[in-house]
Amino acid sequence: xxxxxxxxxxxxxxxxxxxxxxxxxxxxxxxxxxxxxxxxxxxxxxxxxxxxxxxxxxxxxxxxxxxxxxxxxxxxxxxxxxxxxxxxxxxxxxxxx
Length: 97
Fold this sequence. Notes:
Mean pLDDT: 80
Oligomer: single chain
Shape: globular
Largest sheet: 2 strands, antiparallel
Strand order of the largest sheet: 1-2
């Protein structure tokens, strides 16, 4: 009989509060473990630490703001399985940059 449990489990041992947005969670990890890997993409040959990911997503949020994209605006994402998808998730941080 097959188990419903995954064969490999990664992640925190305690649940992360649901009240944190992706930007909040990224900032938390960038502050507490800046040199740990946040993303490892073998097919793109990219490794990003939490501090690098925060820097890139903040830069992207500033670029959105320069095009007058603000909180509440709809942003379409057309990406495959790429690291940039995570960076685009910074859009809730637009007004805080």
